[in-house]
Amino acid sequence: MVLVEIYIITKNGTLLHKYNLLDSEQSDKDQLVGGFLTALNGFASEIGFPAGVSLIRSGNLEARFSPGTYVFSVLMIDYFMPLSYMIEPILSGLAREMTEIFENMYQDDLILGETRRIYRAGDFEGFRKEIDRLIDKYGDETNELYQKLILIEGIYAKVPQKWIIPLMEKISNGENILGQLTNEIPEIYHNQMRKVIRKVNIENKPILDIFALPLLADI
Asked: Could you tell me where the DSSP H helices lie in the chain?
């Protein structure tokens, strides 16, 4: 299972919200992590990167930063295999939208906290519901992408486009076509499609795990 943690941190280093897909409880360590991420982001700004850090990687760990006016969010992922380039726009969009929604929801609290230099963590607990909603939203988009990737790889595997294009149109119209492959694609091409499905599942497993999407095992 991929480990995903989300941090919402003020520009001066106060951790306002932490979300873990496995455990939402905060600990003393989270404050240390928040301070480290703030220092790293601030250092990047000081040496000439005006927007601060955008992405850092170390071994299995990836931290994706998204700055706002009052806070920045960090989407931290720990996974044993590299993330596919196809995942980049989805994860970047998720981090960016989290920052925007958080600042829109809590603008008054953030302004007051910045003025007084004091923030009440309990004021921001309700944001967990917004993160759940965003994960559902991006999960739907990822499920559509997953289906399209299978069909695109099917074309590369020399499955005739006359069988692929109608299914692609159904996906664009909001249909889930995973259960239709057996009926819509002739059996003579099923061996190619099995290889395609295994390839897509392996290459995109991190993001499929993040959004808990059901995978097509076979046809």
From this structure: 28-46, 88-105, 107-116, 127-156, 161-172, 181-184, 190-203, 205-210
CA distances from 166 to 105, 175, 182 (A): 42, 11, 14
Same domain, 149 and 188: yes
CB 44 within 8 A of CB 53: yes
pTM for the predicted model, two decimal places: 0.80
Residue 128 Cα distances to 123, 131, 138, 174, angstroms = 12, 5, 15, 28
pLDDT at residue 25 tops 60: no
pLDDT for 84 equals 66
Q: For residues 212 and 203, what is the distance between their CA atoms, to the nearest angstrom?
A: 15
Among candidate residues 96, 123, 150, the one where a domain is terminated: 123
